[in-house]
UniProtKB/TrEMBL annotation:
Phosphoprotein keyword on record: yes
Subcellular location: Nucleus
Function: Chaperone protein which promotes assembly of the 20S proteasome as part of a heterodimer with PSMG1. The PSMG1-PSMG2 heterodimer binds to the PSMA5 and PSMA7 proteasome subunits, promotes assembly of the proteasome alpha subunits into the heteroheptameric alpha ring and prevents alpha ring dimerization.
Gene: Psmg2
Any single biological process term in GO: proteasome assembly
Keywords annotated in UniProt: Chaperone, Nucleus, Phosphoprotein
Matches recorded under Pfam families: PAC2 (PF09754)
GO cellular component: cytosol; nucleus
Organism: Cephalopterus ornatus
Oligomer and partners: Forms a heterodimer with PSMG1. The PSMG1-PSMG2 heterodimer interacts directly with the PSMA5 and PSMA7 proteasome alpha subunits.
Protein name: Proteasome assembly chaperone 2
Similarity comment text for this entry: Belongs to the PSMG2 family.
């Protein structure tokens, strides 16, 4: 199961858009919840006039049986104080559906990095203990950087370290709950700032692809992903027509 966190720049959601569009995934259902702001809109992955008027809502499920892949796309923000009920419902569904693994695509405020996080790549990962046993060695081979813990009391004590994901929305709660419930979950995230976050989405989805090889890697890593038709309306598109 792939899913985004509703986090800074909506980077996870944009990256999930690229996965759904590129793999031509089929919508198979909805994730009904009262924890998200209600919304409805046209089909964001329309390919022709015939399917452009299909309706989409705030949380939908897509499937690709050939890759044993399910994607939950979230399109609206959370209602205040509804983070925990949503996490409980989601993880209950994950266990009930017997999802082997969960991958959460997320982001965190670039301006709140500590000194160590300013070094090197802006990409980080987290693995629950159950998934660490299975793929921890591969992450080392890929030379990926695990999300650093930061001082709980900066400037006062540097010995007490905690996981801190500012701007990450439900990311930390989902991860910590999955650790305690024995769920195999990976979090892939990028440090970024609000703005035109389409480039951040490409970087994050390429990071995912480096691990799971969803599509064949190319020299021009942007051209391997199919841009959803709805992106024409984002930030004045900001993308050359050749990408559509």
């Amino acid at each position: 199961l792939f899913q985004p966190a509703v986090s800074v720049g909506n980077v996870g959601q944009l990256a999930i858009d690229l996965v759904i569009s590129t793999l031509d995934m089929t919508k198979v259902g909805y994730f009904y919840t009262d924890c998200l702001v209600p919304m409805v809109g046209n089909n964001p992955y329309a390919t022709a006039e015939e399917n452009s008027t299909e309706l989409s809502i705030n949380a939908e499920v897509y499937s690709l049986p050939s890759k044993k892949l399910v994607v939950l796309q979230i399109r609206s923000p959370f209602i205040k104080n509804k983070y925990r009920p949503f996490c409980e419902a989601l993880l209950s569904w994950v266990k009930g559906s017997r999802c082997a693994r969960v991958v959460v695509l997320s982001s965190s405020h670039a301006y709140q990095r500590d000194d160590e996080q300013l070094l090197g790549t802006p990409l980080r990962y987290l693995l629950t203990p159950d998934l660490e046993k299975a793929v921890g060695g591969l992450m080392q081979e890929l030379n990926w950087k695990e999300m650093e813990k930061v001082a709980a009391y900066p400037g006062i004590s540097e010995t007490d370290k905690v996981l801190h994901i500012p701007g990450g929305g439900i990311t930390k709660l989902l991860f910590t709950e999955s650790c305690s419930k024995g769920i195999q979950m990976a979090v892939l995230l990028k440090f970024c700032s609000e703005g035109d976050n389409i480039p951040d989405a490409f970087v994050l989805v390429n990071y995912l692809n480096e691990w799971l090889q969803l599509v064949k890697s190319e020299v021009n890593s942007s051209s391997q992903w199919k841009i959803p038709s709805s992106w024409r309306l984002l930030f004045g598109s900001g993308l050359p027509p050749a990408l559509f």
